[in-house]
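so the lab meeting is tmrw and i was supposed to have these ready like two days ago... anyway. pasting both below. for each one the top line is the aa sequence and the line under it is the structure tokens. i havent really looked at them closely yet so no promises
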Amino acid sequence: MDKKILTLNIVVSILILVVIAMIASDVIAYKLSRTFPSSLKKESTLAPAVRRNDLAAFSSILEKGLFGKATQGRLTPIAQAEGPAATSPNDLILLGTAIGSFRETFAFILRQSTHEEKVFRLGEDVFDIGPLVSVRKEGVEIQSGDSRIKLLTPTEVPGEAAGAPGTASQAGSLASKVSPGGYVIDQRALTAALDNIGQAMSDARLLPNSKDGKVEGFNVSEVKPGGIFAMVGINNGDTLLSINDFALDSPEKAMQTLVSLKGQSRIKLDLIRNGRPTTFTYDIR
């Protein structure tokens, strides 16, 4: 009887020692993992690469068709998905600029690959390239990393001079007066002028007319004879308030409204000329 009890005690003691050893092993492993976390992370990051190499080692088996012709083939690596391509500077075209105070200075830029036209305020990021850091009548500059990208406005036609103040006779061949304040414009001529929106944006200079910190229309100057602004009868010195009842209270609206004229059958201009509110309507035929 004593022998049986002794044997049982020995077995129980051995089991207790095994349990203690397992607990001690877990405690030591936990402390080591807390002490050397970086080495464990390196091992975990290397594991997928090792697995890929292990998989590549079986490519010869697949190519030789070890398990019959039905299983013969090539092991093709999985191509990693590429992110969207960054916009190239050559993909951008400067359509026009509007220059005023810091918050009223803009550039109208076209991304050719997506046919996206967008107005950017000075300081804003131009698509995914970088911030717009400089806006002038002849061009803009975009900061891209440590370098600057320059975009120039469409080249002006040589020999053209700015329209003289108070004259709109150049529009006479394109627009004919049918009533006081009412005109008819040739549709083909208007469409042709708007087909090159970049050139149209350089047909006059628009400066925000600010009152009490708000934009109320745009002061027009440097109107080019034969351009879109001269065609619709806008003169140097006019203040353009609205087009088709859309108030021009920001450079974005001014540029976008000009673009939207293409395809219209009627144009209404509200402006101030010589200090007086004036309205012109144009039927496009």
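ok protien two:
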Amino acid sequence: MKKHFRHITLVFFCAFILSGCANLSGHSLFSHYSASIKSSRQALYQGQIQGALDSLPDEPAGAILDGMERGRLTLLAGDYTASFAALQKSDNAVKEQQNAARIQVSEGLNQAGALFTNDNMISYQASDYELGFLHLYLALNYIHNRDLNGALVEMRRANQVQEAAKQQRESELASVESQLRKEGLADNIGSVLARYPNAGQTLAAVQNGYLFYLSGMLYEADGNLNDAYIDFKRALAVAPDNPYVAEAVQRLAERLSMTDDQQLLAKKYGPWQSPQSGTGRLIILDEQGVVQAPEGWRLPLWLYNSQGQSVLYNLALPHYPPRPAVLPGKLSLNNRLLTVPPLVNVDQMAKQNLNETLPVRVLRQSLRVIAKEQVRQSAARNGDEVGNVLANIFNTLTEQPDTRSWQTLPAQVALYQEDLPPGSHQIQWQGRSVDAEVKPGRTTMVWISRQGQSMSGWSVLLGGN
């Protein structure tokens, strides 16, 4: 009778933990995010945008990621109303989450569930680079609708939310370091971090040159040359080898009479050549490929149990295996092949973000595998063989890596700029094209996104040069 009672207790305890988790789903409990949207990503890789939308599961990781994925895919599909609505849904979910007082109780249940299941049970918090892209794509929707003021608001918000997310992450990492020392796990987890493939931190991996350049371009179109100059310089710090970013900085340095900057820039990039009279500026923002998705990675970890014995546990962590990005070929402008240098490497940003959050992930995993093992040992000591077997099965099935991330983003974004005579010009690729009207003294922005054999794109005439 006692064995039967202990067995029932274990089952009902697990049921209580799981039922209390707001994020409970089959995807988060017995699988992981990358696996749940694999079909959608495969369709996107092949350029089948509608197929990617149709196979996207319904909120496998909550409203924030769902809004991001759907907002991106509907933008590629040309459904700007649906794109804006989905991105706003994600934005509203982020705002609600950031109100800590409102989510404290429910998040406590999620954390408890995560201690006995996996990190996928914790409410997803978008990284700072993802929040930057969220507002960037909201801004692109505004630009497409010729709403420059709305786009500028999103650019300002992007800088604010990225900074807030960065501060929150730094605070969380400091808390984790303190807890590692308290739990006596610093040496064990240090060995895990030493074996984990390191992305390597560079400025380009933590700052978004795409966002900075787009912001500078919009400020310049609005006549705010000082703010434009600041953001162009930030873009150049991220992408110092991009000649078109350097050209934008030199152009603004000339217009603002930044003599010292002009001299320094000329030494590195050569003297700036002013455009011919009567021309207009064509700027192409070229999104390429699909960002890499994290995969599961099993790693052994030796820890001491409550009896002081060294026990081998297995951690399930997200991981980006070495894999070259699949990028499309060259664009053409009026049947002339273009060299379009990169502005941002999104793969690199995703890997760096994972690397930065790794100590937090490893600590949670270590505490979790210990807690699961204690439940199993308790059942074994009490002679509850059924409970012991159930605990083993439960532990194995629920230990899933947290692979949640925005997985429909491009792999990289490139930039091209040229001063052209007025008239209609055409950007071409594999039989597809986008028309762009150039006017004297004006800037024409062309947005293009290419995945598989698909090309989405449009052009819009901005303010003066």
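from a quick look at the 2nd one: The chain is about 55% helix and 15% strand. The two ends are 84 Å apart (CA to CA). will dig more after coffe
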